[in-house]
């Protein structure tokens, strides 16, 4: 079956909003005496841009660093599987490619690295940005959307042009490019819609 039947992209812009809140609560039976206070730090001058927070790339233990790529197993019909990888020929000097799923940080891919993830079938935003600080466009304004079918596996590569939209590949070509690639598990995913992949039972395979 061709990729075009279940993998398509379209543009979607979503304006970001800044929300700043500050609350102070004091609890107790008697009066609260304030004896001293420190002045708040001055705000940056208008000429200095305010930077967004970096993706929550919490480092995992060293034992979570992944193994060499093996052919992707089948997946149950209730899930769609995505193998997101980065070419071995990419320049390490450009830094990691931040992978976002539905606007949330999932993985950081170095050259010759990959991540395998599963989501519920349907439309999902799948993007990867290289050196996207300080705007982190994949987190604040996801634009690329893929329609994924349950029980199917798609292979997409990071675009080294830094455009965000991944490059789809057929299974044979992708697995040739993935030869020797290592799974990138050194950071913890923050993408809440990503689920553990599950393989069909032996009985389901025979049916």
Description of the molecule:
The chain is mostly beta strands. The chain has three helices and nine strands; from the N terminus they run βββββαβββαβα. The strands form two sheets. A five-stranded mixed sheet has the order 8-7-1-4-9. It has a four-stranded antiparallel sheet with strand order 3-2-5-6. Strand 2 and strand 3 (104-109) form a beta hairpin. The longest helix has 7 residues, at 171-177. The radius of gyration is 21 Å and the shape is globular. The two termini are 20 Å apart.
Keyword list:
disordered N terminus, mainly beta, five-stranded mixed sheet, 3 helices, 207 residues, 9 strands, globular, four-stranded antiparallel sheet, 8% helix
The dominant shape is globular
Largest sheet: 5 strands, mixed
In terms of quaternary structure, the protein is: single chain
Give the N-to-C terminal Cα separation.
Answer: 20 Å
Number of helices: 3
Write down the secondary-structure element order: EEEEEHEEEHEH
Q: Return the average pLDDT rounded to an integer.
A: 76
Low-confidence stretches: 1-38, 43-58
What is the count of β-strands? 9
Structural class: mainly beta
Strands of the largest sheet, in order across it?
Answer: 8-7-1-4-9
Estimate the helix proportion, in percent.
Answer: under 10%
Share of residues in strands: 15-25%
- What Rg, in angstroms, do the CA atoms define? 21 Å
Describe what is shown at a glance:
The chain is 8% helix and 23% strand.
Strand-helix topology:
Blueprint lengths: L79 E6 L11 E5 L2 E6 L3 E7 L2 E9 L6 H4 L4 E4 L4 E5 L9 E3 L1 H7 L4 E2 L18 H5 L1
Parallel strand pairs: 1-7, 4-9
Antiparallel strand pairs: 1-4, 2-3, 2-5, 5-6, 7-8
